[in-house]
Every structure is written in C-alpha cells, then in structure tokens.
Design a protein that fits this description.
It comes from Litoreibacter arenae DSM 19593. It holds the Pfam family adh_short. This protein is α/β, with parallel strands linked by helices and 307 residues long. The protein folds into 2 domains: 11-258, NAD(P)-binding Rossmann-like Domain (Rossmann fold), CATH 3.40.50.720; 265-307, no CATH class. Helix content is 41%, strand content 14%. The chain has helices at residues 20-31, 54-64, 79-93, 116-144, 155-158, 165-184, 212-222, 230-237, 277-289, 298-301, and strands spanning 11-14, 35-39, 68-72, 98-101, 147-152, 190-198, 248-252, 255-258. The chain is globular, with a radius of gyration of 21 Å. The two termini are 31 Å apart.
Amino acid sequence: MSDQNPLNGKVMLVTGAGGGIGRALALEAAKAGASVVVNDLGASLDGLSDASTAAEDVVSEIEKLGGKAVANGDNVAEPDGAAAMVRQATDTYGRLDAVINNAGILRDCFFHKMTYENFDAVVKVHLYGSFNTSRAAADVFRDQNSGSLIHMTSTSGLIGNLAQANYSAAKLGVAALSKSIALDLARWNVRSNCIAPFAWSRMTSSIKVDSPEQEERVNRMKEMVPEKIAPLALHLASDEGADISGQIFAVRNNEIFLMSQSRPVRSVHHGGDGWDIASVRNQAIPALKRSFVPLEVSGDVFCWDPV
C-alpha cells in the first residue's frame, strides 16, 4: 500500500455523495484507489423534491479521473434501501470495506414550532439511516472479519445549536450508535468512529444571515472546503486505521480535534439516609454548580478563527 493509493483494492459506500461533503469524500476515496458506491437520492436539502442525477454525475467525475464507481439511488431511511446499496457493492466489486454514513437532510425550526413530521423525517435520515446502512454492512464485515464504519455527527448534537432539535438529537444519537457498534463488533475487527465536519456545503448553506456577525461567520465557513474532511475519513477507512474505534473526531479546515465523551465531572455524597430535597438544594447543587456545563452553542465553543 502506497501513500498515493492507501485504499487500493478497497470498496467504499458513501451515502449522500451527490454533493458537498459526500461528493468530496467519494472523489477523494476514488483518487486513493477505492472503488466507490456513490449513493444519493438527489433530493433537495429538506428531502422533499424530486430526484436528480447527482449520484450519476459524481460517478462520471470519478470515471474521468480513471477511478471506479457505481451510482445508487436507494433511500438510507428504508432498511431495504440500505440493504440494496450494500448488496450492490458486493455484487459489483465482490466485497465492502468501509461505509461513510453521510446522508442527511435539514428542517431547521425552533422547538416550540417544530412538527412531529419534521422531527421524524430528520431523525429517520440521519439516525435510522446510519443504523440501516451499518446494520446491512455488519453482516458482510463479520464474514470478512474486517470493516470500517465512519459516521458524520455534528457539534450541533455534541455541543448544541439553536433551532435544530431534530438534527441535534439525531447527530448525538449517531455518536452513541457508533460507540455501541464499536463495542459489539470489535470481536470481528470491525471499527466504528464519528467525524463532526466543519465545511461549507449544501447543509451549511441554509444558515440564516441576519447580522454582520453572522455574515462574517458564514464567510469564514466558506473557506472550509469539504475536501478538508477527506484525509481523516480515508485514514479511518484504511488498514492503517484499523486500531482506531469508538472515537469522535472533528475536522475544521486544517484542524483535527478529538472530542470528549460523557464521563462523571464531579460528585457529592450524603451519608446516613441519603439525600432529601432540602439537602439537595442546600448542599448538592451548590457543590455541583461550579462544574455545570454552560448553555452554549457550537460557535461559542469553537470561537476562534479556523486555521
């Protein structure tokens, strides 16, 4: 395996690969030597419009570069769709080595205005979609005794953001799903990791610009191209990334972060019969309060300019 072709002989499925981050990942995977199943419904950002030829267009780009790829138009939100794209990979190329769960939609809205339908639709694509493709791939990976699952999470879920309860819930769920997969499939040398990407794409293009500060933030984001996500994702898919599992990374332009995972921060103990309401109020909360997590959004935590 050379540095130029670290994925030579590998087969990769990239969902939501018709544009943005998914397209960049599919193209870079092909350049690194992988055969790629390019999945995309070609729908609009909210998942409502008619399908387009987005997947086929990316396949054409890959083939012009001399790479190998096939288009897939199945829906990750449907178990049969996920099974079909995994089957297409094995029927076409004889195996499947990595899945990047990237497909997603947005229906941003403040929580008190959010409908069940808009909550359900976003969770179905992001969380159920990641489950469906991972579950379909798991049978192949177990038979091969190898495989890599790479899930796109978001700091909207890991930290928080306004007007994204559906998206945030799904993305934090993806992180928990990934950890469970990493634990359950470790005996078959299957690893599972997450990446929270910062990049200008169709998903981030929906950010509302209603102030000079927001406009400045968006302009900074436009400098973060989707191709910046690829090196980490492709390393996690390669044989050299085989010892990495159960981790959550973030990529922001030229920065790579390892994100924390929930652990106890501080504890208090009350002897005798334990706590009552009064002792919780007078002792527990004052002692714990100094370690409370602030009510922050992603931009408050990642508050410096990307480098």
